[in-house]
Structure formats: C-alpha cells, structure tokens
C-alpha cells in the first residue's frame, strides 16, 4: 500500500471516531484535520470533500465486515456454524471498534442524501453484500437454509445484527454483548433454516 | 481416403431429429455433400440399399455415423432383427471413423431418462473412447439435440481433408465446441449490464436470470454458426437449454435455479464471488436504453 | 404362406408380417419394435419441462407435439379455474409454426418417401426422382430447407425448438422478420406452382372435378401417370371413416362415419393395449406383437390425417377424387399435396391478420408447479393427423402423461376381423410391392407410433 493510501486510511479511521462521537454534520473537515495534526489544505489533497470522505468511509467500514465474513465463508464448517461464527465476530467488532458499526447505522443508513451519487444501492457496500450472498447461496444449495426471497433474508440477517449493535450502543443491554451472541445467531439461523 | 468417401448412417433409439436437421441444411451445402461423399446407406433416404445389405456386405466405409442412443436390450429395440449395439459392433470394424451424431448417440441424451431400460448409452460406451475403428481415431461426439447440420458437414469435410480432428474432453470437435452458446447472442449487452428479461416474449433483456438460459455455461457454436444461416433459439427469445452438454436434459429447464434469489450457477470459469460483486455493481447503473423498449411501436 | 419383411424409410422401421392365400394378402400385421418410453420419462417432471421433452418424441412433427403440450398445459390452468390470456398474435405464431412444419414434411414425404417406391415400381422410372441424385429430389430438399428458415426466424431453429409456452410464445418478431417469413412462404408457393403442379396456386385451388387431374402438370402429372399405371387408385382402401381432432390452422374438427361430418365426444376416444407389449417382459402374451397401442372412437377405427382433413373441411377437389377413387393410395397422396396449397394460402392469410404490436406472452398468474392438483388435455392436427396429449399434475409435478399420436390411429394394431386402419388396407393386395406402397400412403412414422 502506498504512503498516500495508508494516510487515507488513518484519516478515515480518525473520522469514523469523530463522526461517532460528535455526529456526522457536527464534524467538519477542519475538525478532522486538527485531530490528524494536518493542515486543512493538506486534508483536501486526500479527500476533495466531506461527501467523498463519507463514501470512502462507508466502503472502508463495510469492507472490514466483508473481510470478517469472507474468512467465515471460507471456513470448512456448516452454514449454521458460520452464522454463529460471524455473529461472534460482528459483536467483537462492535465492542472493539464501535465507530465502524455506528457509522453504518447512524450515518450511512440515515443520511442517504450524502451517498446518492456514486453510492446508490449496493454500490459502496457491495463487497459485504456479496459475502452475505455467498453465505445464503451456499446454505440454500446445501439445503441447510430454505429457499426464500433474497431481500427478506438479507433484511432479517442485517436487521438482527444491526439492531442489536444499536441496543449495545444505547447501553441498554443488561449483560455483556458477547453473552448474547449465540442467542442472536440462533434466532438468525431459525429464520433461515431449511424445513421439510 | 478415397476420392468420394463412403458414408453409412445408422439410427438407433432416436426421434430422427438429427436426420431432419441434416435435411434442413442449406441446399447448396447439402448438394455439395452429396457430390463429394457417397451416402451409401441412410434408413430414411437411400432407396436401393437396406440395413441388411450393409450388414451382410464386406465393404469398408469411411464414415460410420450413428444417430440415437444405443441399447443392447432387444425388448425395446431391434433393427433388422438385431440389437443396435450388435449392429454398431459389427460395423465399427469396417469403418474408418465413427461419429455419434447428436446428444443421444453421444451419451444417451433424452432416451437415457427412460428408466425401465437400464441400458441406454452413447456410442463411446459401446465402442470405447479409443474406438476399434480402422483409422484408430477417437470416437467423435457431435452433441446437440439436435446437432446443427453444419456441424455434421464441417466435421466430415475436415476429416476428409485432414484425416483427424482435435477433440475436447467430451470427445467433441474443439473448433465447434470451444465457444459458448452465449458467444454471439444478440442479447449480450443485456447480460453485460445484468438487465434481465422481464418475461418471455420480449426482444429485450437477458434470459439467464429468470428463464433458465444456459448460454454462458454451454459449449456450442449456436450463435456463431446460425441455424440454417438464419437464427438461434436465444436470438428469438428461447432460453438455451444446454442440449450440447452431458447433463441434458436437466430438471426445470425453463427457469433459472436460484438459492434465496441468487443464481445457483454462474458463467463458466468465473468464481461466484467475482460474479456476484460484478453483478452488484452493474445492477446499480440504470441504463435507460436497456430498460426501455428496443423498438417503440408508437413512435 | 407367411412372409416377414422389414420396411425402412418410415422414420425408423417396421416389420410387415403378411399371410398369403391364393397370392393375396389374407392377414396382415404391422410390428413396431422400438419403444422409448416418453410417457414414463415425463412422470415426476416439472410441468414446463414437458415443453422440452415432447417435441423430442418426434423429429419430424415436434412442433405439433409442442403445441399439443401447450394446449394441454393451458387446459390445466382452465381446470384449476385460473384465467389465462393468450393473444391472437401468439396463437398465429404458434399455428404458423405448425403449418410450416406440415408443409415441409409433406414435401419431403412426397419426394423422399413415397415417390421413390412408385418410381421404382414404374415401367418407365424417371431419373429425376431418384433419391440423393435426381433433380426433383434435390429441389425438394432445397424447398423444405428454405421454408424451414421461415420457422427459424421466429422459433430459432427446427427441429426441437420450444418457443411456445403457456401464455403465449417466447419470441417477439419484428415487421421485417415477418416480411421475411412471407418471402419464404411466397418462395414455397412458387416452388409448388413450378415443380409440383405446373400451374398457379390460385388456379390450382379452384380445381373441383376428378377430370381436373388432366390439367395438372409438373411432378404430380408424373405421379398420376405412374399411379394409374400401377392402379394406385384401386388399392389402399380402408374403412372410409375419418377423424379430425382440432380446428387449428383452419381445419374442421369432426368425424365422418358414413357420409356426413358430425361432432364427436372426446370421452369416446379410447386407447387400449390388448396387442401392445408389456413393459414387464415376463408377462408377455402371444397376442401382443408390437409397441404400438390401439385407439378407436366409439369402438370403431377411424383414419386420420390429410385425407380426413380434406373430407371434413369439404375441400372440393379432394372430395371429388374421393368420390371417384375412394380412400385409395392415389386419393391419400393427392390429399397431402392438396394440403400444401391449402396451408400455404392459410399461412398468407394469417400473416396478413397478424398484429405484432400485441403482446407475445402474458404471464399466467400462477406457475403450474404451484398448482396442487389439476389435469388437462391438448388436441392438435399434426402432419399425420389427430394428436392428443393428456396429463395430470399433482403437487406441482407431472403425475402422468398420455399421448395418442396420429400414427396410432392409422397404424395401431387390431386383429381379424376388426383390423386397424392400415392393416385393413393391406388385406387383399397381391404383392409386397403394393403392400409397401399402401403402407407408405399413411405416412408411417415409426417413432411417433410407439413414442
């Protein structure tokens, strides 16, 4: 990776933290530059606008999740175990770098106007969606999952995980997030599993 | 090879579709074939020679063409009081080349789906891949249900001129079967941008997504060598049913098999992950020209 | 004395088993010794897969099987009370496909199948009819191959396209495609005029008297000369009962038992297998002598095919020929040739009423595989006559599929004295040569007969 790329990533990581602490609209390019100990002018060498940064940030954060799911998909385990495995990884991710998950939930999903050029549909989250497709397709091909509408399955899968990350962020959970992992995985699996 | 090679055409468990296909070849090409080859025997076409004449003769033949699946089971087929396998076993020794014409002759095809007859096979199962024919040339499979007339003629002319023909893993002439049915399909642009056909009966859209088209995973030159120089199934709107591949006929041929909405099979040689990523991206582009009618009748 | 001969050039082969008494055929059996089991193959398959399977019963009349399947599947919707719309455009494109198939088949049959025998039996055989070499034989191949291109324009290929589907057709041809189709039809009309009858088709279609045979030129003139020389107007008679199962392509559905055309009841069509081999060879009985089944209407044998169609449709020329020469070989051959002209004209009319701005296909509200239980029948006039498909769908799959082909009507077995149609026509003949020509006059298709 080039030095510029490495720098871009550290800007994104820093921005995600700021967005999550102060909110997307309350965080300005000068704020980010300050946190990065860079000049505002220099910042623009990396990202010409905050919208551009926002889009790169969503690609970055979903790619992190895509990477996690790809590792799980490549494991030689049943589709049921894959759901348990990924749920665990996802919740660990929520604990370790909550800003990545929160960015997706609080910024990407609720500020569509920022992303309507070049990030329509699945364009910026494609890698992750592809991995979900691989998970579902393989499960159905092996008759571990029942056949159903893709969006119904995708929505349920992401809704459960995202919704729980939201609860965790709101600090309303009584137990440690990871204590819920198998329960959530079980729910997801039940909604997908094959029925005779 | 003699100046005018001798051709013998035998039929076994068949619908005669490959014969009808041959007869549909362009007249100039068919006449040229009759001028340059001697069609010694064909059950539907020759008048003075019978199958018995051929069986009782000692003559050697340059090309033994077999249409239809073979069976040793005389309950379900006898030809001149013999089983079709017995006939082929006799004739192979007197023939220089053996060509299975059509999917049934190649591997059993549709006829292998009749479960009460447990011996329905292709020619190579009887005579071997390295066949006992006089030239020692491998058994040649011309798959297709039916096979294109030009594929038959071009194979014969090539063997006449060169004495051998390169075959793929399924014993098919490489030059005819290295393309996919997809190559040259007039709906290719719809495939590129993942625009599915909304239903049957439309000029617009690709038939791979819903209608079961096997074009991107079927080896054949259907869209390179057009049927009767005219058209192809996919060009008019009928999905490719993969009739040149050994898994034909499959189940649910007129719909795309999907798992939770995701195509179960993707184009040949492409990983599913790569295909799905590409599809996801391509689908986000809403290309007006490909969404609307190709020809607006009301303009 | 008994003789057993193998008959070829009938899309497969059959064994002709003749018993002779005083040099005449005293008893006759036609044995079909191949069985491919399509009805069994279809059990348990998805209903739409029948569209791929059934054309493959027969490489010669696959379009007819396809249309019979579509009709049967659409009837399944009707019996499940699910509304279905099929546009006039789709219906025309289906029937046009069938017409082209019939026309090219009749041309091939005349030159490749029956003329070689009649020519060989003639005292003055003519070189131009010799298979694979004769000019007229080659021109017939050219004509049949050219008109097949018209079919490829909207069906993709022939044989074995499945472009028809419940709800319509898969194709959506342009004006130019259909003009090209018409060009090929016109080309075939020109061929018919120049080579077959030696007169303009419009004039041909006005012929109405037996005497008008004298006006015919071209290859039909040669055929007639040889036929009278061989007395083909005197042999080949059977029951003189005719059956036409469908109105498609402008034909007239009905039966003729004695003289007049009357309606028939579908449930009186009964198929039986008294003389048909058992799948389980261990329980084979000796009266069973081939794979063909038997079909009768109200317990009577009926002839089906072009002659039957000309009779119920009241096509004057053929009716007059029938009045003069009965259901002889000559009448049967003339009915096939006459049908070429009738169908080419019908095709022209259809092309002129075709409105390509209509929908090609309107998707049924429910997929057949989602219907728990239904049944349907499809009827169509194929090249060789009445074709019936019948199926039951259970839990979204084909539970059973039954096909009654035209050749079962004409060639299905009976036994003395209740002979099948072709069997009866063989009784009393005095040579194998005659028997072969009489048998061929029914346009035998071994593969359809047993399927």
Automatic annotation (TrEMBL), chain A:
GO terms for molecular function: DNA binding. InterPro entries: Homeodomain-like_sf (IPR009057), HTH-type_Tx_Regulator (IPR050624), HTH_TetR (IPR001647). It comes from the Bacteria. Residues 28-47 bind DNA. The chain crosses the membrane at residues 150-169. Keywords: DNA-binding, Membrane, Transmembrane, Transmembrane helix. PROSITE patterns: HTH_TETR_2. Residues 5-65 form the HTH tetR-type domain. This is TetR family transcriptional regulator. The lineage of its organism: Bacteria, Pseudomonadati, Campylobacterota, Epsilonproteobacteria, Campylobacterales.
From TrEMBL, chain B:
Residues 177-252 form the Cytochrome-c3 hydrogenase C-terminal domain. [4Fe-4S] cluster 1 binds at residues 15, 104, 145. Its cofactor is [4Fe-4S] cluster. Heterodimer of a large and a small subunit. GO terms for molecular function: 3 iron, 4 sulfur cluster binding; 4 iron, 4 sulfur cluster binding; electron transfer activity; ferredoxin hydrogenase activity; metal ion binding. InterPro entries: Cytochrome-c3_hydrogenase_C, NADH_UbQ_OxRdtase-like_20kDa, NiFe-Hase_small_C_sf, NiFe_Hase_small_N_sf, NiFe_hydrogenase_ssu. GO terms for cellular component: [Ni-Fe] hydrogenase complex; cell envelope; ferredoxin hydrogenase complex; membrane. One of its GO terms (biological process) is anaerobic respiration. It is found in: Cell envelope. [3Fe-4S] cluster binds at residues 222, 240, 243. Residues 15-158 form the NADH:ubiquinone oxidoreductase-like 20kDa subunit domain. Coiled coil: none annotated. This is Ni/Fe hydrogenase. Pfam families: NiFe_hyd_SSU_C, Oxidored_q6. [4Fe-4S] cluster 2 binds at residues 182, 185, 206, 213.
TrEMBL record, chain C:
Its main location: other. One of its GO terms (cellular component) is cell envelope. The keyword Ubl conjugation does not apply. Its cofactor is Fe cation; Ni(2+). It is found in: Cell envelope. One of its GO terms (molecular function) is ferredoxin hydrogenase activity. Pfam families: NiFeSe_Hases. The keyword Cell membrane does not apply. Fe cation binds at residues 61, 448. It comes from the Bacteria. Signal peptide: none annotated. Keywords: Iron, Magnesium, Metal-binding, Nickel, Oxidoreductase. Belongs to the [NiFe]/[NiFeSe] hydrogenase large subunit family. This is Ni/Fe hydrogenase. It comes from Candidatus Marinarcus aquaticus. The lineage of its organism: Bacteria, Pseudomonadati, Campylobacterota, Epsilonproteobacteria, Campylobacterales.
